[in-house]
């Protein structure tokens, strides 16, 4: 009798161990943005380890593989994905590779900064539900933000999430993400309510942590429209016919749970404040307490040099930062390697790696700097550097050239093909400007899938060495299938051509080198571009406008008036653009600094003369 | 005194109650041989200390209602035009009755409700504690699809209330959708949409709020569909109470409006509507005794004292619900509540005065009206027999209702049948789920005469 129960216990234990051994964790993306001196990725790893995931897979793209591997160390396996255009693509490939075997597994999105105790409960609840209802394949973990937290984060975090779920089963019946739904109302069909109670909540924060069954990956594979997690959840929930397979788990009540996604600078600040506060977020890191300065609720890296009389409140100061005497920082996020001059004031701003801020400069709220600020500069609120105005300021341009580490970072981001979807955080500060800069957003965000696809088609076609004629045919088919015109594709194709021309060149390449590269490419692509842009001067002017506004933001060389002028001339010489179109474009965009620049003005003057000559010639001929 | 009550007893339920309410409002249907409304009046006037009750009805039903109300002091009958809506009826009652005008709070209860005193007290107490414009009683249940409501709640505060039928009718594809505005969610980030609650049609209003809401209402204004949802949404449209500055501004704004428009009541800040969920009725009905045993002695006595149960909440929306209520009262008559002396409990039935039962009659969960005649060897189960009805010998009547002066002839077998006033069911009928009215057998007048003998012969004989 005595031995019997022991045997049973042993058997039970073995079973438990087997189950746990199966539990896998997947971190989608490479959250290298730092919050309080730690990469977001590390928080994700903590959560997975706490939840008992023994096999952790970190998915990243080829550009970041090295850095991610460093951050992950021996805590998990790094899987590298090449040529994936979106998180959806990565998950589809993950499904093909067949490495995720556990049911359920935990998936953490890269933009998620979280610390959750008791995620194993969510896993258990998911497994239980799945047993009863095989359709219940996704459990989304949400955090009760509370009214105040929600209000604090929301105004700029695009995270204005409205979730409706059945009160008893927690089945999600509506998921209104501002990205996917911009309606003023949440509409619930009565048949969905089914005679029960449905909670409709706007006080929940999506933690970016999901407990999934393998079917989730299958469904990514089945549906190529799923580009990212938001697409996926919103569609799964909206699909009444398939039975709404997503469930919600709300972290609430006593216990330690925190989760938030980093969507923009204010989100970074909000999460950092929670962490520094130490009562809601992950445990605050232990930093330095300099004696010659006042430090309130802040993290100061041990390797930072703090000048006398600094006042640092609610800020995060990274490694190897030098703070000058009398600097005042409040809600400042200073990445490693920055140099902050004497008596500088920084309020609610983010400084990228290695930024140099000159003495007596003032960086007011909302500024996000990737490049330096000259001594004594008083920036306007919400300044983004590099921004559209940056070229006009020679001091800053000079500083930028000398700023250590600024540009390689930018290059890395550019190479990052996942930027649209993989947690907005991993693009870092530099690209956040795009989010709040409407003209750039108008075509370069994920929402314009068409433009992105065209761009990818041109670039991949070029790399594969396809002839231009067949590329044109391919584009024609695609635009027909999408019910678009060639003109819609023109800006994206131009973008691709510029990318092909500029990307192989070093950042500091001379104007001559840039123009030469551009000439080669435009010569190569002339038939395609001419077809896309068409004959109508109005249409051509439209394409040109995108060149001057949107593309100049993405392709830094194009913002150089010399290069821009050369581009116009090359396109004119190649007969892609007519003189009428260029002049019309100039008239429309007279305020654009590029158009107003002397180089372009002289070209336009030349064109006009040419035009008049032509007119005269033709009139005299007739 | 503090509160008065308006009971709305102007409808007969028309098609739903055909044929048993012909010429009767639902409020005076006999339940345990007494008009339904007397239960409500007893609860309100005797148990809950309501100062004044006005039963509103139309001229058509005035006599029947007056008869039912006559026994109660502090209760009166007001007659309104048939065409005024429920809000109009309340408006007239308030303006014409001195007693009601002095009350600070007004209960408005539908005459088809049957409420235990504790549920009413809870409603009134909640109203006072919350200090709201209106408190409504709801009960859990999805048994009444036609009457089902979609309620949007923020805590226990009602943010919106729409009838599911209306939503379905409004939708283009006939499939209703409830819309929750995101602006509302900003004001109150956690809402619950419920479809499992039914409006009992028992409300407590603060008098000012009620007057303000119904003052300028049109003839079709309804309390349920217009006034209560209006008060509910007004609260969420006003700035939150914790925004003191906004609050002041709002008050001032409303005051300005008043000056311009001269409308009264507008300056009162909306305080919203709160819903009180009645205790689960099924539990009470299935295990009344078990529940009482758990309660203390005093409570038990109080509970027993109430003819329907202290927490009881029911609304007679259909014949089925009516029959259920009748059974409930018969079952509870086993307990010690006083039976008015004249009504007797016999063989699992309540038997009215001067009713004549034949030999070997089996009664179960049944009410027999005054002066009714039941022939020998009849079996009557789960049924209601109104005053002066006649059921001749050898009949089996189950789950049925036999109205006043109706006759069921010999050896008929009725199941789920409603026999209208003065209707006659021929001998040897085998009927299930049917309704009879006096006109159903137009040619039967002669038969009646022919069959008069068996009645007179079997009737007195059986009484022996």
Automatic annotation (TrEMBL), chain A:
**Stored InterPro entries:** ARM-type_fold, eIF2B_epsilon, LbH_EIF2B3/5, Nucleotide-diphossugar_trans, W2_domain, W2_eIF2B_epsilon
Renumbered to this chain, the Acidic residues biased-composition regions fall at: 422-438
Which region ranges are annotated with the description Disordered?
Answer: 399-446
Q: Which GO terms describe its molecular function?
A: guanyl-nucleotide exchange factor activity; translation initiation factor activity; translation initiation factor binding
* Domain W2 stretches: 430-617
Tell me the compartments it is located in: Cytoplasm, Cytosol
Output compositional bias ranges, type Basic and acidic residues.
409-421
The source's superkingdom equals Eukaryota
The primary site where this protein sits is: cytoplasm
**Keyword Disulfide bond attributed:** no
The alphabetical list of record keywords is: Cytoplasm
- One Pfam family it belongs to: W2
Q: Name one GO cellular component term.
A: eukaryotic translation initiation factor 2B complex
Which SUPFAM superfamilies does the UniProt record give? ARM repeat, Nucleotide-diphospho-sugar transferases
Q: Record's family?
A: Belongs to the eIF-2B gamma/epsilon subunits family.
Q: Supply the PANTHER family for this chain.
A: TRANSLATION INITIATION FACTOR EIF-2B SUBUNIT EPSILON
Oligomeric and partner information:
Component of the translation initiation factor 2B (eIF2B) complex which is a heterodecamer of two sets of five different subunits: alpha, beta, gamma, delta and epsilon. Subunits alpha, beta and delta comprise a regulatory subcomplex and subunits epsilon and gamma comprise a catalytic subcomplex. Within the complex, the hexameric regulatory complex resides at the center, with the two heterodimeric catalytic subcomplexes bound on opposite sides.
Protein name, entry field: Translation initiation factor eIF2B subunit epsilon
Q: What organism does the UniProt record list as the source?
A: Chrysophaeum taylorii
Automatic annotation (TrEMBL), chain B:
Q: Does the keyword rRNA-binding apply?
A: no
User: What are the protein's GO molecular function terms?
Assistant: guanyl-nucleotide exchange factor activity; translation initiation factor activity
Where does the secretion signal sit in this chain? Answer: none
List residues of the Nucleotidyl transferase domain.
Answer: 6-138
Query: Which region ranges are annotated with the description Disordered?
Result: 279-308, 435-464
Q: Where is the composition biased (Polar residues)?
A: 455-464
Q: Which GO terms describe its biological process?
A: cytoplasmic translational initiation
Comp. bias intervals (Acidic residues): 299-308, 442-454
Q: Which family does it belong to?
A: Belongs to the eIF-2B gamma/epsilon subunits family.
Q: What does this protein do?
A: Acts as a component of the translation initiation factor 2B (eIF2B) complex, which catalyzes the exchange of GDP for GTP on the eukaryotic initiation factor 2 (eIF2) complex gamma subunit. Its guanine nucleotide exchange factor activity is repressed when bound to eIF2 complex phosphorylated on the alpha subunit, thereby limiting the amount of methionyl-initiator methionine tRNA available to the ribosome and consequently global translation is repressed.
Q: What is the protein name for this chain?
A: Translation initiation factor eIF2B subunit gamma
């Amino acid at each position: 009798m005595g031995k019997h129960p022991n045997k049973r216990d042993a058997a039970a234990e073995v079973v438990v161990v087997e189950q746990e051994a199966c539990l896998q964790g997947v971190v989608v993306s490479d959250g290298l943005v730092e919050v309080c001196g730690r990469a977001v990725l590390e928080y994700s790893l903590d959560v997975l380890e706490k939840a008992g995931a023994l096999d952790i897979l970190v998915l990243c793209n080829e550009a970041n593989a090295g850095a991610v591997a460093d951050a992950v160390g021996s805590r998990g396996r790094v899987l590298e994905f090449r040529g994936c255009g979106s998180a959806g693509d990565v998950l589809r490939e993950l499904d093909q590779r067949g490495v995720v075997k556990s049911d359920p597994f935990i998936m953490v999105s890269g933009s998620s900064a979280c610390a959750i105790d008791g995620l194993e409960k969510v896993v258990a609840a998911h497994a239980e539900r799945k047993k009863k209802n095989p359709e219940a394949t996704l459990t989304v973990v949400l955090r009760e933000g509370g009214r105040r937290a929600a209000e604090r984060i929301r105004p700029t975090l695009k995270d204005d999430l409205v979730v409706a779920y059945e009160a008893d089963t927690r089945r999600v019946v509506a998921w209104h993400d501002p990205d996917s739904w911009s309606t003023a109302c949440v509409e619930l069909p009565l048949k969905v309510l089914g005679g029960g109670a449905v909670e409709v909540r706007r006080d929940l924060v999506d933690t970016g942590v999901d407990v999934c069954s393998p079917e989730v990956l299958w469904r990514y594979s089945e549906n190529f429209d799923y580009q990212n997690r938001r697409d996926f959840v919103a569609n799964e929930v909206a699909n009444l016919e398939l039975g709404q397979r997503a469930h919600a788990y709300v972290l609430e009540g006593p216990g330690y749970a925190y989760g938030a996604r980093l969507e923009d600078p204010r989100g970074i600040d909000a999460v950092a404040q929670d962490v520094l506060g130490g009562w809601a977020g992950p445990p605050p890191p232990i930093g330095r307490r300099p004696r010659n300065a006042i430090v309130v609720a802040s993290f100061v890296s041990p390797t930072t040099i703090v000048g006398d009389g600094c006042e640092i409140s609610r800020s995060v100061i990274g490694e190897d930062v030098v703070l000058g005497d009398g600097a005042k920082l409040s809600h400042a996020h200073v990445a490693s390697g920055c140099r902050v001059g004497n008596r500088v004031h920084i309020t609610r701003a983010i400084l990228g790696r290695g930024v140099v801020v000159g003495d007596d400069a003032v960086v007011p709220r909302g500024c996000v700097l990737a490049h330096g600020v000259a001594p004594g500069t008083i920036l306007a609120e919400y300044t983004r550097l590099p921004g559209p105005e940056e070229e006009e300021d020679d001091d800053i341009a000079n500083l930028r050239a000398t700023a250590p580490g600024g540009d390689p970072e930018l290059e890395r981001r550019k190479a990052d093909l996942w930027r649209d979807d993989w947690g907005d955080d991993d693009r870092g500060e530099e690209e956040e400007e795009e989010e709040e800069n409407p003209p750039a957003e108008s075509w370069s965000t994920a929402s314009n899938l068409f433009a992105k696809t065209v761009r990818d088609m041109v670039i991949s076609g070029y790399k594969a060495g396809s002839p231009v004629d067949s590329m044109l045919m391919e584009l024609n088919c695609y635009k027909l299938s999408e019910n678009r015109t060639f003109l819609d594709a023109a800006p994206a194709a131009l973008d691709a051509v510029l990318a092909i021309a500029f990307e192989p060149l070093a950042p500091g390449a001379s104007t001559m080198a840039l123009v030469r590269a551009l000439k080669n490419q435009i010569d190569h692509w002339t038939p395609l571009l001419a077809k896309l842009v068409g004959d109508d001067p109005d249409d051509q002017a439209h394409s040109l406008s995108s060149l001057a506004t949107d593309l100049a933001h993405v392709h830094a060389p194009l913002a150089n008036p010399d290069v821009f002028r050369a581009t116009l001339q090359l396109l004119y010489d190649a007969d892609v653009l007519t003189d009428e179109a260029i002049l019309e474009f100039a008239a429309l965009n007279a305020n654009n600094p590029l158009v107003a620049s002397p180089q372009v003005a002289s070209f336009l003057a030349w064109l006009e003369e040419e035009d008049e000559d032509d007119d005269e010639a033709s009139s005299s001929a007739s | 005194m503090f509160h008065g009550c308006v009971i709305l007893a102007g409808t007969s339920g028309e098609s739903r109650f055909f044929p048993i309410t012909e010429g009767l409002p639902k409020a005076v249907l006999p339940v345990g041989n007494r008009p339904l409304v007397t239960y409500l009046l007893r609860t309100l006037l005797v148990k809950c200390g309501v100062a004044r009750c006005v039963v509103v009805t139309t001229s058509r039903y005035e006599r029947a209602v007056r008869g039912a109300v006559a026994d109660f002091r502090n209760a009166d009958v007001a007659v309104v035009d048939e065409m005024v809506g429920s809000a109009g009826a309340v408006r007239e009652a308030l303006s014409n009755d001195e007693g009601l005008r002095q009350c600070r709070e007004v209960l408005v209860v539908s005459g088809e409700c049957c409420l235990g005193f504790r549920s009413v007290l809870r409603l009134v107490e909640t109203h006072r504690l919350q200090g709201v414009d209106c408190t409504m009683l709801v009960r859990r249940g999805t048994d009444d699809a036609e009457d089902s409501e979609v309620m949007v709640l923020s805590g226990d505060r009602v943010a919106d209330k729409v009838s599911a039928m209306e939503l379905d009718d409004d939708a283009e594809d006939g499939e209703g959708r409830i819309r929750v505005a995101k602006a509302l969610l900003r004001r109150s980030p956690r809402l619950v949409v419920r479809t499992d609650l039914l409006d009992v049609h028992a409300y407590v209003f603060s008098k000012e709020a009620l007057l303000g809401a119904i003052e300028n209402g049109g003839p079709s204004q309804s309390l349920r569909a217009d006034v209560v949802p209006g008060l509910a949404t007004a609260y969420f449209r006003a700035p939150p109470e914790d925004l003191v500055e906004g609050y002041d501004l709002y008050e001032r704004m409303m005051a300005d409006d008043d000056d311009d428009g001269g409308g009264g009541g507008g300056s009162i800040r909306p305080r919203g509507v709160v819903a009180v969920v009645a205790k689960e009725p099924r539990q009470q009905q299935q295990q009344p005794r078990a529940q009482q045993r758990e309660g203390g002695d005093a409570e038990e006595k109080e509970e027993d004292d109430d003819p329907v149960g202290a927490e009881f909440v029911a609304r007679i929306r259909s014949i089925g619900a009516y029959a259920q209520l009748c059974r409930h009262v018969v079952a509870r008559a086993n307990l010690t509540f006083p039976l008015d002396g004249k009504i007797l409990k016999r063989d699992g039935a309540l038997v009215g005065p001067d009713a004549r039962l034949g030999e070997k009659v089996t009664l179960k969960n049944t009410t027999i009206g005054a002066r009714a005649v039941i022939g020998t060897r009849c079996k009557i189960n789960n049924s209601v027999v109104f005053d002066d009805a006649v059921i001749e010998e050898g009949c089996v009547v189950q789950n049925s209702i036999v109205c006043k002066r109706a006759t069921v002839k010999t050896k008929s077998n009725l199941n789920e049948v409603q026999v209208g006033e003065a209707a006659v069911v021929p001998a040897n009928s085998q009927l299930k789920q049917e309704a009879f009215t006096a006109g159903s057998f137009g040619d039967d007048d002669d038969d009646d005469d022919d069959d008069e003998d068996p009645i007179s012969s079997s009737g007195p004989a059986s009484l022996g």
